[in-house]
Design a protein that fits this description.
The protein has two domains: 87 residues, lambda repressor-like DNA-binding domains (434 Repressor (Amino-terminal Domain)); 191 residues, Beta-Lactamase (2-Layer Sandwich). A five-stranded antiparallel β-sheet has the order 2-1-5-4-3. With 291 residues, it is of the alpha+beta class. It is elongated, with a radius of gyration of 22 Å. Helix content is 47%, strand content 10%.
Length: 291
């Protein structure tokens, strides 16, 4: 007996394809276009999959679709969160909410704000920044101002040149973060949003891909983090302490406490006079030249 989900999957894909005009994705309209929206071969090309394979998928054939392929199709068809989860469900893959879209209780923001001037943030298990206070935003404006899909510490650390990093002990920090992320990943093995994140970050960062391949694991622990060495200020040493957020799986609040009185004074001065640049001097000039 045919799987009814396969027919629903076929109809769903056709309906999503029909609503996207070629111009929406930078393709010419053409004079011989007899169907609304994109052609199958155009979707396949944009998603980076085989035309025959995509045709079979739209025909409801019993073929296996990987998380990576479905994620590429979802991006090509501009599916929103609900549509993306529906696509995974029809294809027989587990569907879970993206950690970056986790909703936190309102009280969590109140706690973060009350901790100022000490920087504090709430991360998902995937290092998505879910909420933060003003002090944290002053130190990491590129992270807190990024689109939701890129509001992730790992993403920012590996896609920002090391010379522009606000982390003084970057080499130690990225190794620790990848190891703790690997431990969290084991509990989310096979979940589409986690697999997709690893694939996308591996594709844009050879450094991350190499570190990921080492399979190092670690648990979150108190450690020293050094801030803002590249912003023309004294280094600010902090100790990081994390706390679980009740009612929100995998979420944890991380608080950065100055190590010494001198570090506290430097932090307060930084908050009073926030840096006007978010990159090293070289890349800041490069950015200004292309603006």
């Amino acid at each position: 007996m045919a799987d009814p989900r396969r027919e629903d999957l076929a109809q769903f894909l056709r309906s999503r394809r029909a609503r996207i005009a070629p111009a929406d994705v930078g393709l010419p309209e053409g004079r011989r276009r007899r169907t609304p929206g994109l052609r199958r071969e155009e979707v396949a090309q944009l998603a980076g999959v085989g035309v025959t394979w995509y045709t079979w998928l739209e025909q409801g054939r019993a073929i296996n679709a990987s998380v990576q392929v479905l994620d590429a199709i979802a991006r090509t068809l501009r599916l929103d969160r609900a549509e993306r989860e529906h696509l995974y469900l029809l294809a027989g893959l587990p569907s879970v909410p993206d950690p970056a879209e986790t909703c936190l209780p309102a009280e969590v923001q109140s706690v973060l704000d009350a901790l100022s001037p000490v920087p504090a943030v709430v991360y998902s298990g995937r290092y998505d920044a879910l909420a933060w206070n003003g002090s944290y935003a002053t130190i990491f404006p590129r992270l807190t101002g990024a689109p939701v899909a890129e509001r992730n510490v790992l993403w920012q650390m590996f896609t920002t040149p090391a010379c522009c990093s606000a982390i003084g002990n970057r080499a130690v920090e990225v190794a620790t973060m990848v190891a703790t992320f690997r431990a969290a990943y084991a509990r989310r093995m096979g979940e589409p949003t986690w697999v997709s994140f690893v694939d996308r970050l591996s594709a844009v960062s050879e450094e991350f891909a190499a570190m990921w391949a080492r399979h190092d694991v670690a648990s979150p622990a108190l450690r020293v983090k050094i801030f803002v060495q590249n912003l023309g200020r004294p280094d600010i040493r902090t100790t990081t302490t994390s706390f679980a957020v009740a009612g929100t799986p995998d979420a944890r609040m991380v608080v950065y406490l100055p190590v010494s009185e001198a570090d506290r004074v430097s932090l307060e001065q930084l908050l009073l006079e926030p840096p006007t640049i978010t990159r090293c001097t070289f890349h800041q000039h490069e950015l200004a030249a292309t603006a």
